Amino acid sequence: MNRNLGIIGKKVGVTQVFGEDGNVTSCTVVQSDSVVVGKRTADKDGYTALVVGSGDRKEKHTRKPQLGAAKKAGVAPKRILRELRCSAEDLGKYEIGQPIKVEDLFEAGQLVDVQSLSRGRGFQGVIKRHNFAGSVTTHGTHEYRRHGGSLGTNMTPGRVVLGRKMAGQMGNVKVTVQNLRVVKVVPEQQLVLLDGGVPGAPNTIVRLLGAIKRPNAGKPKKAD
């Protein structure tokens, strides 16, 4: 489990960044407005985490339990709520109602992990969903060009085995992309520019955490 502290934001879109050497880097832009709306402590809950909210919600559109929790915390109701696991040390750095600034967590060259929902593709066949080759298109092939072929067994066990690649719902699943490099941080607009693609359509909710496999990559070494 990734316990590196991070943010919740939305995928704004893509852009280009020109380096000092003239090279162009394609970047995905993530914008954050994360605010701490609650805490989970080891004594009370058995683990440590920050409850982070993003985006304001009207009170008349908020359910009473959520509205009561927001008023108790002294913050406006949020559209998105997520728990971000963290260490006890990171938990003590933030108070309820305090925003999480991107410049405090990320810097250019750092590696991060991104988690979001991929684009929903609806019901798709085996060629698009699983990259099947399809059948031959000559020698009298009739209405079988994009079929999946045989499903397998006959008498034993007499059923389609579990996990068989078939047509069905494609996309709209949680996807994690690891070790993306931070190209630039814009504190004025709370933007983080990432080198590479982030799953999902524009305005998709994104969870951005420090890389779990290479937590110190890109960070400057502390002087002795």
Query: Radius of gyration, Cα only, in angstroms?
Result: 23 Å
Secondary structure tally, helices: 5
Residue share in helix: 10-25%
Coarse structural class: mainly beta
Number of domains: 2
* pLDDT averaged residue by residue: 90
Per the principal axes of the C-alpha atoms, what is the gross shape?
globular
Strand content: 35-45%
- Largest pleated sheet: 6 strands, antiparallel, barrel
CA-to-CA gap between the ends? 30 Å
Q: What's the order of the H and E elements?
A: EEEHEHEHHEEHEEEE
- For the biggest β-sheet, the strand order reads 1-2-10-9-6-11
Q: What is the fold named in CATH at topology level of the largest domain?
A: Elongation Factor Tu (Ef-tu), domain 3
Low-confidence stretches: none
What CATH first level of the largest domain would be assigned? Answer: Mainly Beta
The name of the CATH superfamily of the largest domain reads Translation factors
Number of strands: 11
| CATH-derived architecture of the largest domain | Beta Barrel
Characterize the structure shown.
The chain has 5 helices and 11 strands. It is mainly β. The protein folds into 2 domains: 6-120 and 174-210, Translation factors (Elongation Factor Tu (Ef-tu), domain 3); 121-157 and 164-171, no CATH class. A 6-stranded antiparallel barrel has the order 1-2-10-9-6-11. Strands 3-4-5 form a 3-stranded antiparallel β-sheet. A hairpin with a 4-residue loop joins strand 9 and strand 10. The radius of gyration is 23 Å and the shape is globular. The chain starts with 5 loop residues before the first strand and ends in a 14-residue tail after the last strand.
